[in-house]
Amino acid sequence: MPGKGELLRLVALGHAESRADLARHSGLAPSSVSLRVEELIEAGLLQEEGAGASRGGRRPRRLRLAPQAGLLAIADLGSHHVRLGLADLSGTPLAVVEHPCDIAAGAEPTLDWICDRLEELVAARGDGLPVRGVGIGVPGPVDPAEGTVISPSRMPGWSEYPVRAHLSARFGVPILVENDANLMAAGEYLAWPGCENLMVLKVGTGIGCGIIAGGRLHRGRGAAGDISHVRVRADASVMCSCGHSDCLEAYASGAALMAALAAQGVEVAHPSRIADLAADGVPQATNLVRGAGRLIGDVLTALVNFFNPDAVVIGGSLSAAEQLIAAVRGAVYERCLPLATRDLKIDVTRAGPDAAILGAGSLLLDAVLADAWVEQTAPRP
C-alpha cells in the first residue's frame, strides 16, 4: 500500500495536485488519502491552497510541497570548478553559485572545502530551512552501492574514497553520490518531454555519457555510459590518462584539445575558450574541434545503432562549438542505420549549465521522500 512518502512524491513530481488526483494515482480510498494529507500538512510538508482545475463539480484545492519543508544541497564538481545549488524538495533550483575548485587536491580536502561552501550557501540563501538531502556529482565512475569513486582517470587521490560516508558524517541526511554525466542526463530528461530514451554527452575537460532508458537513469553496475575510454582509430598512437592508448578522451576531450593547441603555440586556460576560438574562425581550433566531433560521432555510431535512442544530447563546455556538433551529426547520420536515425534528434543541452543540479534534485527525491523518513517526520497522531 502506498505510504505518505509516495503521496509526497506524486505531488513533488507534478503528477498530482489534489486529493482526488492522489486517490486516482495511488489507488487509495479518498478517506485514506485525506487522512494522510492532513498529517502531511500538519507536519509542514504539504500545503493546500487556491483552487485547481475542475473535472466537474466544485474545484479542488491545490496541493503543493510546503516551501518550509526543507532544502536539497547539491554540488556539481568538475576538474577545475564546482557549481553549488540549493533546491526545494521538488528539485527546483532556488540558488546557484560557481567557484573555482581544483579536484587534484585530493578527496578529503576537496570535500571538506565543498561542505564549507555548501554550509555558507545554506546560511546565506536558505532562509533558515533545514537541509533534507545532499547530492554530489563527480567526473569519474561511481559505485552506486558504496558511494565511492572507482579508478578515476583525472581525480588523483579519489579512488575508493568513501565519499558518501564523508558527507553523511558532515550532514547526517540522505546522500547521493553520482557520476556528473548521469546527473546531467537525469536533468536533461526533464527538458525533453516525450523522449524516454536519451544519450546525454558531457564534453568538457573529459568526456562522459549518461543514459536514460525507458525514462529511468541506467547505471549498470556503475560504469554504464563511460565512452571516454572506447578505443578509436587515429593516425598516431596517444597514451590516455587511464594508462591505455588511443582512448576517445585522449583525442577528443577538452584536455586533449588544449594540449594540442598548446603544441601549436595557442595557450588556452579552459575548454570553453576553445569553443570561442572556433567561433572566431581560428584555424587551429576549428580543425581540432571538427576532428574531435568526427571521433565522437564514430563512437556514437555503434552506440546509436545498438541503443536506438530518441535523442543524443550534447552538453559541457565544448558543446558551444557548432563545428563539433555538426561533425557529430554528420558522422552519425552518415553511418548509422536509416531506422536508427529516422526520428533521431542530435542537439545541444536544453537544461543548460544547471542540468546536473536539476538531475540531482530529481534523483534525491527517492531518498529524501522515502516512506520511512516521511513517517518519522509526519507520524500518525
What report would you give on this structure?
The strands form 4 sheets. Strands 5-4-3-6-9 form a 5-stranded mixed β-sheet, sandwiched between helices. The chain has a 5-stranded mixed β-sheet with strand order 12-11-10-13-14, with helices on both faces. Strands 1-2 form a two-stranded antiparallel sheet. With 381 residues, it is an alpha/beta fold. The longest helix is centred in the C-terminal third of the chain and has 25 residues, at 283-307. The chain has helices at 4-12, 19-26, 30-42, 107-125, 163-171, 180-191, 248-252, 254-263, 271-279, 283-307, 322-335, 338-341, 355-368, 371-377; strands at 46-49, 62-65, 71-77, 81-87, 93-100, 131-138, 142-143, 148-149, 175-179, 198-203, 207-213, 216-217, 311-315, 345-348. Helix 2 crosses helix 3 (30-42) and helix 6 packs across helix 13 (355-368).
Strand tally is 14
Total number of helices: 14
Major sheet, described briefly? Answer: 5 strands, mixed
Shape: globular
Distance between the termini: 19 Å
Structural class: alpha/beta
Radius of gyration, whole Å: 22 Å
Overall mean pLDDT stands at 92
Strand order of the largest sheet: 5-4-3-6-9
Q: Assembly state here?
A: single chain
- Low-confidence blocks of residues: none
Task: Output the helix-strand order.
Answer: HHHEEEEEHEEEHEHEEEHHHHEHHEHH
Fraction in beta strands:
15-25%
Into which percent range does the helicity of residues fall? Answer: 40-55%
Topology (elements, then pairings):
Elements: H1 4-12, H2 19-26, H3 30-42, E1 46-49, E2 62-65, E3 71-77, E4 81-87, E5 93-100, H4 107-125, E6 131-138, E7 142-143, E8 148-149, H5 163-171, E9 175-179, H6 180-191, E10 198-203, E11 207-213, E12 216-217, H7 248-252, H8 254-263, H9 271-279, H10 283-307, E13 311-315, H11 322-335, H12 338-341, E14 345-348, H13 355-368, H14 371-377
Helix pairs in contact: 2-3, 4-5, 6-13, 9-10, 10-11
